[in-house]
Amino acid sequence: MLKGVRCETAKCAMERQWRAHPPGMHSWRRRKQTEYGVRLREKQKVKRYYGVFERQFMIYFRKAERTRGNTGEELLSLLERRLDNVIWKLGFAQSHRAARVAVGHGHVYVNGRRLNRPGYLVTKGDRIGVKPSERSQKFVRQIVGDGGPSVQPWLQLDAQQLEGVVVALPSREDVQIPVEEQLIIEMCSR
């Protein structure tokens, strides 16, 4: 954007206009966020990060509710164990969305069987590999590179064979997004 000479002074209309106010026509009406709004924002943050819709999210929540441990930690562990997330964490894809597409197109094998469901929950001891075709292997080798990415402690990567192993189930410390799971539990338990 080209600016005039006036924009180098304190009288610049572009800079002065946005200086003290948040975006929006009615920014002066902004109120403190309600408790419901705070809880909803946390839930939406997790849903967008893992790429799940409301119905899928509630299925994971119900599964987490039925377990014995902490419901919030169990919910995050379930979401972390999704196959598309594991593919992304192993470095076989550049983003969550690319990992989801790779799984959907059948480029991923789990324990020697081709899977095309991104929501598949991996378990301890599962071996996740790339389709043995030359095209799939070449594409993933470009992403992984020579040294391979650093993976989390609950995963183990063999960059030469393009295969990953789930060594343990993920814990709360393995979840890297800043989220307060207690607020999500309060929101979904209503």
Question: Key terms for this structure?
Answer:
190 residues; alpha+beta; Structural Genomics Hypothetical 15.5 Kd Protein In mrcA-pckA Intergenic Region, Chain A; 5-stranded antiparallel beta sheet; 5 strands; flat
Give an account of the 3D structure.
The chain is an alpha+beta fold and 190 residues long. The chain has one domain: RNA-binding S4 domain (Structural Genomics Hypothetical 15.5 Kd Protein In mrcA-pckA Intergenic Region, Chain A, Roll). Helices cover 43% and strands 9% of the residues. The protein is built from 8 helices and 5 strands. A 5-stranded antiparallel beta sheet has the order 2-1-3-5-4. Strand 1 and strand 2 form a beta hairpin.
Brief characterization of the structure:
This protein has 190 residues and is an alpha+beta fold. It has 8 helices and 5 strands; from the N terminus they run H-H-H-H-H-H-E-E-E-H-E-E-H.
Number of strands: 5
State the CATH architecture: Roll
Please state the average pLDDT score: 86
The top level CATH class name: Alpha Beta
Oligomer: single chain
User: What does the radius of gyration come to?
Assistant: 22 Å
Uncertain stretches: none
Domain module count? 1
Give the strand order of the largest sheet, numbering strands 1, 2, ... along the chain: 2-1-3-5-4
Q: Number of helix segments?
A: 8
Kindly, what is the distance between the CA atoms of the first and last residues, rounded to a whole number of angstroms?
Answer: 49 Å
Biggest β-sheet strands, sense, barrel: 5 strands, antiparallel
Could you name the CATH topology?
Structural Genomics Hypothetical 15.5 Kd Protein In mrcA-pckA Intergenic Region, Chain A
Helical coverage, percent range: 40-55%
